[in-house]
Amino acid sequence: MRELIATARALVACDKGLLAMDESNPTCNKRFAKLGIPQTVEPRRAYRELIVTTPALGECISGAILYDETIRQQKKDGTPFVKAVTDAGIIPGIKVDTGAKDMAGHPGEKVTEGLDGLRERLAEYSKMGARFAKWRAVIAVGDSIPSRGCIEANAHALARYAALCQEADLVPVVEPEVLMDGEHTLERCREVTEQVLRTVFSQLYTQRVALEGMILKPNMVVPGLTCPEQETVEEVADATVWCLLRAVPAAVPGIAFLSGGQSGELASARLNAMNARFKSRLPWALAFSFARAIQQPALEIWRGEEANVQAAQKALYHRARCNQAARRGQYDAAMEKG
């Protein structure tokens, strides 16, 4: 347990955050297709090598969430990615759920699968060098959803996954995501997010998960993407923090937000506002666990071309540095001009 707690604290220490590079192959291929990059194993490996070899990335990133294919891959020189990540001062992690599937009897809702055989997979990943894991549940908001059944099913799965992780000496990153899709208001997102978080922590208690040895990865409280009223950065920060204060126990060492489709600049600005306004009064660290909000500029520069690697790495490091500044409450839009 001491090791778990130390790892959990290290993941949110020194104003760093997590880099989610755990896209499934189909998701990665879709992003490649939009940019004309071949959707095969070697381009995926080359792109991941670009990420893990970015100079000084460990200054801003504490942990990297890998995918099953990625954790088994190597750099061109034969160095395993896990070793490359570790040598960069970054803690390797692994995504272990098998995706959100349609939930029987609940139209428009999903439940995340992957518990079958999870104990054995966690043992294998641990031997490969992973020190934490991630499981994502998705909660859609609509006229009559989310239902109690959907929330409880996903919370139960998250808690069972977390218990299995701690049994395997891996820190669980617990990710209940209330989706941004839809016309729902900021207040509706806050209401659903609080309900989801309360249910998740009730299940974590029931499954005897040690809260000191986990990380929460929630959504920010934001209006739906097509909601006519889009609140200010400060209003989102206030709504998010007050929601978390009502639902997340102080024993949790850190909260690492997902970006959930926000632009890199907006995600940084909202995280910055939370830390600038509340950091000294919070029981847990407010960090980041972004994927596209860090990766997208680099991917658009790279486009599968070796000649673009250095420029893409600079863009990746820049976004990571912006988010580290946001953790300190020191991010400013002027940083983007640099």
What does this structure look like?
The chain is of the alpha/beta class and 338 residues long. 47% of the residues lie in helices and 14% in strands. The protein contains 13 helices and 10 strands. The chain has helices at residues 2-11, 25-34, 41-52, 68-71, 81-87, 118-128, 148-167, 186-206, 233-247, 264-278, 292-302, 309-327, 334-337, and strands at 17-20, 61-66, 91-95, 100-102, 110-112, 132-139, 171-178, 215-216, 254-257, 285-290. The protein has an 8-stranded parallel sheet. Strands 4-5 form a two-stranded antiparallel sheet. Strand 7 (171-178), helix 8 and strand 8 form a beta-alpha-beta unit. Helix 8 (186-206) runs parallel beside helix 9, helix 9 (233-247) crosses helix 10 and helix 10 runs parallel beside helix 12.
Name of the top-level CATH class: Alpha Beta
Secondary structure class reads alpha/beta
Give helix % range: 40-55%
CATH architecture identity: Alpha-Beta Barrel
β-strand number: 10
Number of helices: 13
Instruction: Give the uncertain stretches in residue-range form.
Output: none
List SSEs in N-to-C order: HEHHEHHEEEHEHEHEHEHEHHH
Q: What is the CATH homology-level superfamily?
A: Aldolase class I
Could you give a quick summary of the protein structure above?
This protein has helices spanning 2-11, 25-34, 41-52, 68-71, 81-87, 118-128, 148-167, 186-206, 233-247, 264-278, 292-302, 309-327, 334-337, and strands at 17-20, 61-66, 91-95, 100-102, 110-112, 132-139, 171-178, 215-216, 254-257, 285-290. It has 338 residues and is α/β, with parallel strands linked by helices. α8 (186-206) links the parallel β7 (171-178) and β8 (215-216).
